[in-house]
Amino acid sequence: MGRPARAAIAELAARYQLPFAQPDWLPDVIARYNLTPPPGRPGPFCRRPRRMGGVTAKRSVSILRDPAFARLWFIAASTQVGGNMALYALTILVFATTRSNAAVSALVMSFLIPTIVLSAVAGVLVDRLNVRWAMIVPNAIRTLLTLGLALAGANVALLLVLNLGISLTTVILTPAEASMIPRIVPKAQL
User: Fold this and answer.
1) Does residue 186 sit in helix, strand or coil?
2) What's the confidence (pLDDT) of residue 62?
3) What's phi and psi for 57, nearest 5 deg?
4) pLDDT band at 64 (very low <50, low <70, confident <90, very high)
5) What is the DSSP secondary-structure string of 47-64?
6) Residue 187 has what DSSP assignment?
7) Alpha-carbon span 164 to 149, nearest angstrom
8) Which of 13, 38, 97, 103 could pair with 154 as two cysteines, CB 3.0-4.6 Å apart?
9) Nearest Cα to Cα of residue 23 among 34, 14, 33
């Protein structure tokens, strides 16, 4: 952008009610901070799209207004909230059934150990799979396992096995959700 003529600078200074007439830095400040003139007085330096790299950023709208991202966000949020609620309920159920801290620890470890041990391998596996199917299949399996939790009653051994299965599906599901984001969100909003 070239420097505007002295008359344009003086006009801008008057428009913004600045106490000086010809500052050299005024056009840069107006352009840098996307300043607009007072209402009712359009000026030559009204908002322009900013260039970031090779992409022109338009006025950003909420990413949740994108239906594909909103669906992904809702699925991820609901599976996280539901999974954590189920783990909390299982913790209470196992303790109420056994009155054993060791049993509760085994329950929590059956959820955490697969995540710790297999997360790196799961990320590589998901990169080689169709990401869409890597989200659909673990969610379907996780749904069936959660139904199994509801039907298992107070059988602690079965609860531990089902919880282990839910943890294994979560290990696959988490990198699949993360790798889906750049595929559905425009580069300008990443």
Assistant:
1) coil
2) 76
3) -90, 125
4) confident
5) --PEEETTEEE-----GG
6) G
7) 11
8) 97
9) 14
Closest CA to 71 of 145, 146, 177: 177
Instruction: List CB contacts of 52: < 8 A, sequence separation 6 or more.
Output: 188
Contact assessment for residue 23 and residue 11, using Cβ atoms and an 8 Å cutoff: no
- Going by C-beta distance under 8 Å and a sequence separation of 6 or more, which residues neighbour residue 76? 177
Contact 143, 67 (CB under 8 A): no
For the ranges 11-15, 92-96, 120-124, the maximum mean pLDDT occurs at: 92-96
Question: Which pLDDT does position 39 carry in this prediction?
Answer: 57
Contacts of 111 (CB under 8 A, 6+ apart): 87, 163, 164, 166, 167
| Contacts of 90 by beta carbon, 8 Å cutoff, 6+ apart | 107, 149, 159, 163
Q: Which two structure tokens, joined as six digits, stand for 79?
A: 């599976």
The answer on pLDDT for 86 being more than 70 is yes
Instruction: Round to whole Å and give the CA distance between 140 and 169.
Output: 9
Q: Which two tokens stand for residue 37?
A: 């003139």
Could you tell me if 34 and 47 are in contact, meaning their C-beta atoms sit under 8 angstroms apart? yes
- Within 13 Å of residue 40, how many CA atoms lie on the same side as its CB? 0
Q: Where are the alpha helices (DSSP H) in the chain?
A: 6-15, 26-32, 67-98, 101-128, 131-152, 156-184
